[in-house]
Structures are given as structure tokens and as C-alpha cells.
Amino acid sequence: MKYDDTDIKINDSLLNKIEKKKQKLDSLRPLPKDAVKRIIEDIRLRHTYHSDAIEGNTLTLQETKLVLEEGITIGGKPLKDHIEARNGAEAFDLMIELVNSKKRSSQEIIQQIHEFVMKGILKNPGRYRTENVAITGSKIRPPSYLKIVKLMDGYIQNIEELKLQTIKKASYIHHEFVRIHPFIDGNGRVARLLTNFYLMREGYPPIVIQKEDRKKYYKALKKADNGDLSDFAIFIARLINESIQYCLSSFVDEERLVTLSELSKKSDYSQEYLSLRARQGKLDAVKIDNIWYSSKRALKDYEKSIKK
Fold first, then answer.
1. What values do phi and psi take at 9, rounded to 5?
2. Does 94 share its domain with 239?
3. How many domains does the chain have?
4. 3-state DSSP call for residue 294?
5. DSSP 87-117
6. Which segments of 11-164 does DSSP mark as H helices, in order?
7. What pTM was computed for the model?
């Protein structure tokens, strides 16, 4: 499936907000290595946990942390859940390595990522499916397995050649991959890693699709199945906005993220009011593990918008 840039619509104010934040982040480069390492380690943990949880993994965030950092086996939890956590973290590390080595998207890289994600779970990780499949809850049936290699050739070519704005292309990369559904299992996990692989190549921080947003995520993907990628692109854009904000928080005091409860103490607004404005998109805020955060800069911008 191909798109022109005008086919995918994202609100200009959201794109401008992202562009300003990215420019601010870029102006701070080179970033302190220790701080970057801490940020990547945190995103690695949260990406692994949420990506697995979206697919039904039962480990909590804290349990995932123990599995990855201490090698602990969590009593009463399936062995498969532990394997998925370790695989997800190692696949994330591979993605970072590929970005640092300036690799371009290829079928070989995609199969390598899938092998990391599904080793010890599938019989032949890294190999395209050799049978037709159906996706639970979707009316769209993935293409015949006989067409996969040709479709993936076109997919790689489109990643390099389609004239799409970066965020729109990231959305295309994710949706088109799951639409083709080249593997028997693990397509969602690989799609989320491929999206981050592309974003990081373009100078953006990686994003985390949280399990709490699973329904919203799938709803936007379902709409994209019908040829309208705009809602999914907006969904990805908001995550990118949050991710850049999260990074800025580590380097700029005015951008430092605090809970809405703490922010309310420094303003004339209640926590409940700020939470409402955050949910409405009026207050620039970030939701991390179901808790809203914002910054002094965001509060100032909101107050200016009210005066206008």
C-alpha cells in the first residue's frame, strides 16, 4: 500500500510542537553520555515490558526489571513470559547496535530482529511464514505466504523511496509491516522495534506504546487497514512528542517532568483540572505508566494560551 504525504493528515500544531522540541533537543547535542545511557536503559525496560504486555505477557514492570537485571525467575509466572522479556530486551539492544552502525532497513535485518524476538518460542525464528494465517479480531486477512518475499521487497523499497514526512513514514513502516504479517507470530513486537529503528536513524528518541493504550492502538491500526493512516499517524506523533519531552526533561530544568500533583502546588490550578487539560491535549503532558507528568514550561504555555 502506497501513500502520498497529503494522504496522511496530522494536526499542524502537533507537528510544530514536535519540531520545536526536537530543535531544542538537537541544540543540546552532543548530549552527556551517562545521561543518554540512563534514558536508553529506562526506555529499554519500559519498551520491553509494554510491548510484551500488549501481546499478553503477565509479568509486571517490576518483575520484568528483576528478570532483566537480576536474572530472577518469578514464581507462578510462565517460562514463556520470562523468555519473551529477555528476548525483547536483547532485540532492543540489537536495534540500538544497528542504529549506531548506520545500517539501513533490509529483509536480512528484519529477519535478524525477529530471530532475537522469537528465539526459544518459535521453531524457526527469523523465517517468513509458510502458511496462510488470520488475525484475531480483524476482518482483513493477511496476504498469501507465497507473496511475502515480493511484498517485503516492495516494503523495503518504499521505506527508502516514499516521500513522506518522518512521523508519517514511521506510521507507514509500522502499519504496512503488520499488514503484510510476514511471520507466523511476533509481528507486532517486530513492528514496534522497526518503527523505533527508523525513528532513531532520523534523530528521534525511541517511543513506547503502553499497554494501557492497547485498545486505542489497535483501533487506529484497524482504521489504517481500510486505507486511512491519519489516526495511526496522530497516535504515533503524540508518542514522539512525549518521548522528546521525556528526554528534554533530563537536560533542561524548565522542561523537567513532575507529576500533576506537584505542578498543581506551584500554580492556581487543581490536580484534577490539570489532568483534564492533559487528557484534552490542552496542557502539554506525558503519561508514563498511567501517571500524568508535565513541566513548568508547559504550564506557562498553557497560561499564555488562555490569555490569548
1. -110, 125
2. yes
3. 2
4. strand
5. HHHHHHHHHHHHHHTTPPP-HHHHHHHHHHH
6. 12-27, 33-54, 61-70, 79-100, 107-118, 148-161
7. 0.95
Contact 203, 40 (CB under 8 A): no
Give me the phi and psi of 272, to 5 degrees please. Answer: -65, -40
Contacts of 254 (CB under 8 A, 6+ apart): 295, 296, 297
| Cell numbers for 191 | 513492528
* Whether 69 contacts 229, CB under 8 Å: no
180 shares its domain with 140? yes
How many residues does the structure list for the chain?
308
Rg of the chain, C-alpha, whole Å: 20
pLDDT tens-digit profile, the chain (308 residues): 889 999 999 999 999 999 999 999 999 999 999 999 999 999 999 999 999 999 999 999 999 999 999 999 999 999 999 999 999 999 999 999 999 999 999 999 999 999 999 999 999 999 999 999 987 767 789 999 999 999 999 999 999 999 999 999 999 999 999 999 999 999 999 999 999 999 999 999 999 999 999 999 999 999 999 999 999 999 999 999 999 999 999 999 999 999 999 999 989 999 999 999 999 989 999 988 889 999 999 999 999 998 86
231: CB partners within 8 A, 6+ apart? 219, 220, 223, 224
Q: Is 157 exposed, middle or buried (0-12, 13-18, 19+ CB in 10 A)?
A: exposed
Nearest to 219 by CA among 154, 302, 127, 138: 138
Q: Which residues contact 288 (CB under 8 A, 6 or more apart)?
A: 46, 246, 257
Q: At 162, list the grid cell.
A: 516514499
Residue 56 shares a structural domain with residue 150: yes
**167 and 47 within one domain:** yes
Question: Active-site residues: which are they?
Answer: 181
Q: How far apart (Å, rounded) are the C-alpha atoms in residues 106 and 303?
A: 47
Distance of CA 48 to the CA centre of its chain: 11
